[in-house]
Design goal:
It contains 9 helices and 3 strands, in the order αααααααβααββ. By secondary structure, the chain is mainly alpha-helical.
C-alpha cells in the first residue's frame, strides 16, 4: 500500500481530487516542514523536540485550519474541486499527524488509526514530505495578475504564509465578536485590512476561506506602509 496504510495518505479509497486551494497548499507546505524537522529530531534521538514540532502544528491545525476550511469541506458535494481539495488535505494531514505522534502516543494513535485505516499504524511507513507532493496540483496563483507576481506569491506561500495570514484574519474577527459578546456564527458587515501590498496579496489568496468562516459580508484591503491591521465592523 501507499504511505499512510493500504489505502494511501487520503484514507479509505485514497484522495479523490488533487489539492489546489491556496489555504490547503499552505497548510501542506507547513506540514512538510514539520515532517522534516520531526524526522531530523528523531534521528538525533531528540524525542522532545520531535513531539514539540508536531504539537505546535497540531494546535494551529485544530484552532485555525479546521475552522477556516470547514465551510468549504462541507460543500464538497456541490463544489468538487474546491471542496475536494479541502477533504483531501484534511485526510492527508490526519494521516501524517497520527504517524508523527505514533512513537510517543502509541495507544491513542493506534485506536484513531483503526477508525479509518486497515492494519496497525506501527507498521505504516514513517511520513515523508514527498508524499504530500503527490496529492497536490500547481497553485492557481490567486490574486496574482502576472507570472512574476504569481511566482512571488508561490514563494511566500511555500513556508505556510497563507495559513498564517488566514489565521491572523480570522483571529481578529473572532476577537471582535467575543468582545461584543456575539456568537461566532454571527455575521460581520465589513472587515478592513491595511498593510503592505505583498502581505495583502497573500491574504487575498486565502480570502474566500476567511470570508466564509467569519461570515463576512465585505472584505476590503487597502495598501499601507505598515504591518497588517484589521478593522472589524459588526
Amino acid at each position: 500500500g501507499g504511505p499512510g496504510g493500504p489505502d494511501g495518505p487520503g484514507g479509505p479509497g485514497g484522495p479523490d481530487v488533487p489539492v489546489t486551494e491556496p489555504l490547503d497548499l499552505a497548510m501542506l507546505d507547513r506540514l512538510a516542514g514539520v515532517i522534516r524537522r520531526s524526522t531530523a529530531a528523531f534521528e538525533d534521538y531528540d524525542q522532545a523536540s520531535a513531539l514539540e514540532f508536531a504539537e505546535q502544528f497540531f494546535w494551529q491545525f485544530c484552532d485555525d485550519y479546521l475552522e477556516l476550511v470547514k465551510p468549504r469541506a462541507y460543500a464538497a458535494e456541490h463544489d468538487e474541486a474546491a471542496g475536494g481539495s479541502a477533504v483531501t488535505a484534511l485526510r492527508s494531514a490526519l494521516s501524517v499527524l497520527l504517524r508523527l505522534f505514533a512513537p510517543l502516543l502509541p495507544f491513542v494513535t493506534e485506536e484513531a488509526w483503526s477508525w479509518w485505516q486497515a492494519g496497525s499504524i506501527h507498521r505504516a511507513p514513517w511520513p515523508v514530505a514527498e508524499e504530500l507532493e503527490a496529492i497536490r496540483s500547481a497553485s492557481p496563483g490567486a490574486a496574482a495578475s502576472s507570472r512574476s507576481s504569481a511566482i512571488a506569491l508561490e514563494e511566500k506561500r511555500a513556508d505556510g504564509a497563507g495559513l498564517d495570514a488566514a489565521a491572523a484574519a480570522i483571529g481578529a474577527i473572532r476577537k471582535a465578536k467575543s468582545e461584543a459578546r456575539l456568537p461566532q456564527r454571527s455575521g460581520v458587515a465589513r472587515v478592513l485590512v491595511r498593510g503592505r501590498r505583498d502581505e495583502l496579496e497573500v491574504l487575498a489568496s486565502v480570502a474566500g476561506d476567511v470570508v466564509a468562516a467569519g461570515h463576512v459580508a465585505q472584505l476590503e484591503m487597502v495598501p499601507a506602509d505598515n504591518d497588517l491591521t484589521y478593522e472589524v465592523q459588526l
